[in-house]
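User: Hey, my collaborator sent me this sequence without any context and asked if I could get a structure. I don't really work with proteins. Can you help?
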Amino acid sequence: FALLAVPAAITLGLLFVARRIHPRPEDLEAAAPQGDGRRLPRTFWVYLVAAALVAAGSADFPLIAYHLERAATVPTPWIPVLYAAAMGTSGAGALVFGRLFDRSGIRVLVPLTILAAGYAPLAFLGGPWAAALGASLWGLGMGVHESLVPAAVAPMVPPERRPSAYGLFTAGYGVAWFLGSAAMGALYEVSLPALVGCSVSLQLLAIPFLLRVRIPPR
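Assistant: No problem. I've predicted the 3D structure and written it out in structure-token form, which is a compact way to encode the shape of the chain:
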């Protein structure tokens, strides 16, 4: 864990340099989004509902790891390896799909959400190879959540409202993830198919809301 201080220091250093070079990042705007600057647009709230549904359907990896060990799906020493592979998929996916997001806009989130929703049946109901694929899809979903999903907020709102918009978005996203994780943790002791159904259903319910969000490609 002490080694984590190295990337943390690098991150803080980059943040400090960026702060010195661009003390007013809003001045970099080529053109401000349309809006009166006093209220958040309806598109933002529709998108927040979609993101909250996706978050609620995403289990924390500790629950997946607990299941893999309890069900003896894979040997215990391999569970951290699966997590490392999931994180690798997360990082690589963020780079690749971030590029697609720049070209195609928010619509790229629709197929990615459908694809990532497949992690649950694979990880909780499948065998060793299915669990490995499920962990990779879970990592893919995490990469999308941590990069593409927040990035789409910026072009939705005027620059002067972005701090409050991101605060509301992060709060709603976090609460939904907490509630969804709590529900899936409770369902785990009742029925694995019910857990899987809850996870997949919540994420797929986000698709109609995503299709209603209109943001031009950047």
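In plain terms: DSSP finds nine helices and no strands in the chain. You can pass these tokens on to your collaborator as they are.
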